[in-house]
Amino acid sequence: MPRAKNRVASRAKRKKLLAATAGNYGKRGNCYTIAKDAFIRGGVYAYSGRKQKKRQFHALWIMRINAAARLNGLPYGKFMAGLKAKNIDLDRKTLAHLALHEPDAFKSLVESVKS
Q1: pTM here?
Q2: 3-state DSSP call for residue 92?
Q3: Where are the alpha helices (DSSP H) in 1-115?
Q4: Which of 29, 30, 84, 112 could form a disulfide with 24, with the two C-beta atoms 3.0–4.6 Å apart?
Q5: Rounded Cα gap, residues 115 and 103, in angstroms
Q6: Are 72 and 106 in contact, with CB atoms under 8 Å apart?
């Protein structure tokens, strides 16, 4: 009896990887061994990119809060310390949204911290 090599599954596995790397430059999109390396490297970049995205948004929120707080006469550090002292628990994402889209509400927050 001949040995079964399961060609259907192995071909499907290769086709799936080549479909994932379609559109890559040169052999990275059509040569299996090179495409496999490109696919793995792309996954590594995607993983680290998801972590960097969180850092970059956190930094953006801090910049927006700092700019809006300074427009109202208070630096970022003193503003955040004042919020903590007054037990106002708002995260930076929410504060940045207020600073950008609702400046009057943000101004009232800064005034409550100042007094």
Answers
A1: 0.78
A2: helix
A3: 7-20, 32-71, 76-85, 92-101, 103-114
A4: 29
A5: 18
A6: yes
Tell me the mean pLDDT in the region 26-35.
96
pLDDT tens for each residue of 34-66: 999 999 999 999 999 999 999 999 999 999 999
Predicted local confidence at residue 70, as pLDDT = 96
Q: How far apart are CA 18 and CA 5, in angstroms?
A: 21
Sign of CA dihedral 72, 73, 76, 77: negative
Please give the helix or strand (H or E) that residue 104 lies within, else none.
helix 103-114
Residue 13 Cα to chain centre, angstroms: 30
Is residue 2 in some structural domain?
no
Query: What's the number of domains the chain is made of?
Result: 1
